[in-house]
Specification:
Blueprint lengths: L3 E3 L22 E3 L10 H5 L5 E3 L12 H11 L3 E4 L9 H4 L7 H7 L5 E4 L5 H4 L8 H11 L3 E4 L10 H16 L7 E2 L6
Parallel strand pairs: 2-3, 3-4, 4-5, 5-6, 6-7
Antiparallel strand pairs: 1-2
């Protein structure tokens, strides 16, 4: 069966349709894996959903093994996944915040090579504004996954540090500009605006 945690983008009192015509809003089903959820034609099909959003940091017991069924289904049906991927946003604890670590996806993508995954927030903006780009940071891991798997994407939503100006902003746009020009990954770096 299917349990939809959030049936559309209009959760938490945010009305994404306030300024956007209804036909331009793309609904995405958000699911909780620890209840052994498998997306079926109820959400992707009859209800018009086009993808699945995972927010691992909202669950300290996020069940990656149960996710195998979901990942296999999405791969077979060419349904994309959007995954929360930064250390900010909503979480229950430091433990649950770590559930969004993109390194957990190495084994998943090895098992499901045709899976399409977008890492929301590109691992966070801190790596992009840092004086020295961290080798083991989440953004670096996402870049490695993008180079290894053609179905991996990243978006730059919720990157407020880049808007502060100064040296950090210059580093952010220099790095991002270089990656966008990269013929292997450039076409898979997406604009995102988050909820504002």
């Amino acid at each position: 069966g299917l349990q939809v945690v959030a049936a559309s983008a209009g959760r938490a009192g945010i009305d994404p349709q306030a300024r956007i015509p209804r036909q331009q809003v793309v609904p995405v089903a958000e699911v909780a894996l620890h209840v052994q959820v498998l997306v079926d034609s109820l959400a992707v099909g009859r209800l018009g959903f086009v993808g699945v959003k995972l927010y691992p940091s909202l669950d300290e017991r996020f069940d990656w093994k149960a996710g195998g069924r979901l990942f296999g289904w999405c791969e077979r049906h060419e349904v994309p996944l959007m995954v929360h991927c930064n250390d900010k946003g909503f979480d229950l604890s430091e433990v649950s915040a770590g559930q969004s670590d993109p390194d957990k996806w190495r084994v998943i993508l090895a098992a499901h090579p045709a899976l399409r995954v977008c890492f929301g927030h590109f691992g966070g903006d801190a790596d992009l504004t840092a004086r020295r780009f961290p080798d083991g940071g989440w953004t670096r891991i996402v870049l490695d996954l993008m180079r290894a798997h053609a179905g991996v994407y990243a978006d730059v939503s919720f990157h407020p540090a880049a808007m502060d100006g100064g040296a950090g902003a210059r580093r952010y746009f220099d790095r991002l500009g270089g990656w966008i020009r990269d013929p292997v990954i450039g076409g898979r770096i997406l604009f995102g605006s988050d909820f504002y």
